[in-house]
Design brief:
With about 325 residues, the protein is α/β, with parallel strands linked by helices. The chain is built from 13 helices and 12 strands. A 7-stranded parallel β-sheet has the order 8-7-6-9-10-11-12, with helices on both faces. It has a 5-stranded parallel β-sheet with strand order 2-1-3-4-5, sandwiched between helices. The longest helix is centred in the C-terminal third of the chain and has 21 residues. The radius of gyration is 21 Å and the shape is globular.
Length: about 325
């Protein structure tokens, strides 16, 4: 009988889905140290993770029976794809489940940044009436540049158009007709950096997109731009962002993700012109239910019926 390990905290609805499959056994063991995971992973045919579990080459070396890993979420940079291919393990994700939630968070961060909402709350709770020094700005008629025009980027664009923003976007792979239908102008990256009043990052993290925005890119930006980083940590180089916030190139930044999480005593968090949240982009009950359902169904359907859904490495494993 196939066995499945749920190694990260996720909605209880995941186990409710697995309970419907009488021919599947499962264990929920969260917060495992790497050594503990390596010790037991050989027992399992399926693995369900979020972002906390790191499925590294040495984990795969012990995962002799592992046939499928389902990521309850979008980013799979915590799973070593080359090792999965070698091991014959399919990697799936659930990109649609948290699309709206993540896009809404990016818009919320942009608005909070523009109107100094976190600073206003903090100063008021501290007994200070800081109205004069917390003047914000409107997003109306400003240009929003979206870097990465996938599912989340498209929802951000739709919501920004509702705020009467001018939206431009960059993506190497895009549907020009779909962009036009959304009222979005597709441009090259350099033009986006030059024209945008706000920049919102929505790239998938890969070796090619790590440090995608670095010192060179910041030098091309409009002076006083606002940046929203709710994609994956490491896509924006944090040292370069710090320097840009210090010299006024970036007037303010809203950051939900960090290269190392938790970030600890990060120098970005010492700046007054940054607001930050602890990777809350997909943290709504609706999104967590959606991705848990999708991940559980992907694992169960493959292990019981051989039905493979949304496998990111299907071609590599099938060779």
């Amino acid at each position: 009988m196939p066995k499945v390990l749920i190694s990260d905290k996720m909605s209880n609805i995941a186990t409710e889905i697995l309970d419907k499959y009488s021919n599947i056994e499962y264990d929920v063991k969260t917060g495992l140290a790497k050594e503990e995971l390596i010790k037991i992973i050989g027992e399992y045919d399926g693995l369900m993770v979020r972002s906390a579990t790191k499925v590294t080459p040495d984990v795969f070396a012990a995962a002799k029976n592992l046939k499928i890993i389902a990521r309850a979420g979008t980013g799979v940079d915590n799973i070593d794809r080359e090792s999965a291919n070698t091991n014959g393990t399919y990697i799936t994700n659930t990109p649609g489940g948290n699309t709206v939630t993540t896009a809404e968070h990016a818009i919320s961060m942009m608005m909070a940044l523009s109107r100094n909402i976190p600073q206003g709350t903090a100063t008021l709770k501290a007994g200070e009436w800081a109205k004069a020094k917390l003047q914000g700005r409107e997003v109306f008629n400003k240009t929003l540049g979206i870097v990465g025009f996938g599912n989340i980027g498209k929802v951000v664009a739709d919501r920004a158009k509702g705020l009467r923003m001018n939206v431009i976007a960059f993506d190497k792979y895009h549907d020009e007709e779909q962009a036009k239908a959304l009222g979005v102008e597709m441009v090259e990256l350099d033009e986006l950096l030059k024209r945008s009043d706000y920049i919102s990052m929505h790239l998938v993290k890969t070796p090619e997109t790590t440090d995608f925005i670095n010192t060179e890119e910041f030098a091309k930006m409009k002076k006083g731009v606002f940046m929203v980083q709710c994609s994956r940590g490491g896509i924006v180089n944090e040292d370069a962002l710090y320097n840009a916030l210090q010299d006024g190139t970036v007037l303010g930044a809203a950051v939900d993700v960090f290269a190392t999480e938790p970030p600890g005593e990060h120098k970005l968090l010492t700046l007054d012109n940054i607001i930050a949240t602890p990777h809350l982009g997909a943290s709504t009950q609706e999104a967590q239910d959606n991705v848990a359902i999708a991940a559980a169904e992907q694992v169960a359907e493959y292990l019981t019926n051989g039905n493979l859904r949304n496998a990111l490495n299907a071609k590599e494993v099938s060779k």
